[in-house]
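Folds abound. Consider this:
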Amino acid sequence: MALVIIAGLGLWLWNAVHRDLLIIVPGENKTYLFLDDKMVNPTSKQDGKFHYQVDDHLIGKAALTIYPTQLKDINSDQFVRYKRYHQIVEIPRGESSFQLSVHFDTLYSVRYITEGKLPNLNPGGTKILYLNSLDDLSDETRRKELRVYDLVSGEDEQIKIRSNDFYNWKWNRAYFSSDGQNIFMTARRYGSTYPFIVSSATGRIQRLPLKAEDRWTSLVHFNDFKNIMIENKIYNREGIHQRTLKIQMPLYDQIFYSGTNSVLYWSKAYTSGDDMAALSCWHLNLDTLKQRLLFQLDQSRVPFLSGTSDGKRVVVSEYAGKTLEFLTTIKLWEDNKFVKLTNSFVDGDRNYSDGSDFHQTKACINSAGNHIVFEYESKIYLISMADDVTITDFLNADLERNEKIL
């Protein structure tokens, strides 16, 4: 009899200090839950939510950490990633079970916008400027369009350029001025490249009398449109050389936009081995002409760059591979740290669904640093981040950086 009483008392004491837990977590794909640093597997999935049942957990405080779906688990072109959830949970007395429903804050999203090529963003990140080609079967020619997609209203409008001859040129990526009233772009014809300024409102076009040499692969306009930077030189709108900057010559003469008043460029520090090159990324403010070193990478292929005006955020389209085909990964750099934003795209010489036989993914960020746009197989995608998202949020959401998974 005494043993029965002791056993009953022991069971009562056990139940008094233990509770069954049910943690409900949203997510279409796999999530990773840790309770007091121990990984817990989901017991079921109902209505698009994972149910984690934990029996007989001690009452009191418990550390709950949940990593939403990891990038490696995503196989869709469009997706949403969430911030890591971390909370000290108070498991109360007096209840046989305890239920907690979790809500995630958004880290960033990737969504399809429209069909087109060579997309770019206005400084505020509210409009996408892009090129589009339409097949005209009547005369077997391709008609190009310069278009603007308004992310707020959803309107997609063509900027009708007031020059029929300009449609015979090969257009390059276009860029908005800071006030959005003008568009700067370069175009190539008969082996020569010229810069052009297009009015956003009227489509009126002006060709600047500055003939680019074949080796000049990129030109950047100043915010006031009065000057243009090529290599390490500055020219005015009349094509007259103004000055040569005392900076290292940009690698392969390439300079990249960084907001509305700065540029980014690579320099090669040294060669390590046969194929890998140590590349240094520099930020140059066009108002003050001050430069600073941001970071270095060892790469066999030179990445495409796009940055914010202050150079605090840089999007790197990184290329890996030594064959005609290569992999492209879009990465974000901030505070001397890199994070991946996408899984790899297969680029290079191959057949694509849009009929093209070569592609190189190039991502562009807006001046504020909260929107990124890119194109793959003639589909334009937008990466959106909340204004308060930091590089620390990205790092915290990375399971492999923070936990040891057996």
